[in-house]
Amino acid sequence: MTRTWKNLPLLVALSFLMGCDPGPRPSGGMGGGAGNLGVDAARRDVGALDGRELDTARADEVAESGSEAPDAAAADEVAESEAGGPGVRWRLVWADEFDTDGRWDETKWNVEIHPPGWVNDELQNYVDRAENARVENGNLIIEAREDFFDNQEYSSARLNSAYKGDVLYGRVEVRAKLPKGTGTWPAIWLFSTDQNYGPWPNSGEIDVMEHVGWDPGIVHATTHCYNFQAAMGTLMTGFTIVPTFGDDMHIYALEWSADRIDVFVDSDKYFTFANDGTGWQSWPFDRRFNVVLNLAIGGSWGGVKGVDNSIFPVRMEVDYVRIYERSLYP
Ligand SMILES: [Ca+2]
Fold first, then answer.
1. Is the predicted pLDDT of residue 118 greater than 60, yes or no?
2. Which of 19, 262, 285, 299 would bridge with 83, disulfide CB 3.0–4.6 Å?
3. pTM (predicted TM-score)
């Protein structure tokens, strides 16, 4: 694939046309993104999988079309979304509002257990304990700590919805407040559930939100696949500025169809990646993915300027995760 401005996201394309190529993100190469360096799906500790897929969940949980949006503001917001086309409406098919204090809902989420250095040279130890992941006051709290738990300096958490909240096309909406501080690297992203086209990046990764604390207020969206990689200088990525990322909740959203991927912060669409029709190498995004929420510390991108140990504990707070499909009804 020749790198032309036409296949670059807007901000990168502008820089490209102006002869000021911003280059790949300082992510240390292939480990960019939310971090899946050749991750074998089998290596993911997805906990007690019950095999229930989204269709089953829909039967259990989905209300009738047209009245299921949790509140009027949310319904209006998604109805006005431009990427689905004029008049598009979205139908809620899966959600976690995080409205019950305590342990997160095991019917919707799996916790991943990984030691420091598992991916991207990150420093945190991903563990399963309330100090690092819990529901509190309507939000999922993912908290990174410098507490030397398990003989590791930093502890944190990473949850995914594999086999419990999978999605293929639709809108994924995550309302969240991000941590502040040098060394933090929170991510809201989607990962191929079945690794249909092989190990990372072949089966694809969609980063809806990444933020590194040493570059505050710059929120990034990225797609990873075989044909578009940082290692080849073709990574497809964009960014926008969110000054209140750490003070206010914002909606980080993905709209995904067979033709394109659009990423938003609130109503600001700042990244688009189109299906060029050449096959899985450019578009592995035709299989089910799951939602991943994590807070990394340090690493090839988050740790570029070290880690400020005065910041801990730090949190990513998630008000909700909602998955919509395009409605067939007016
Ligand atoms: Ca909530």
1. yes
2. 262
3. 0.78
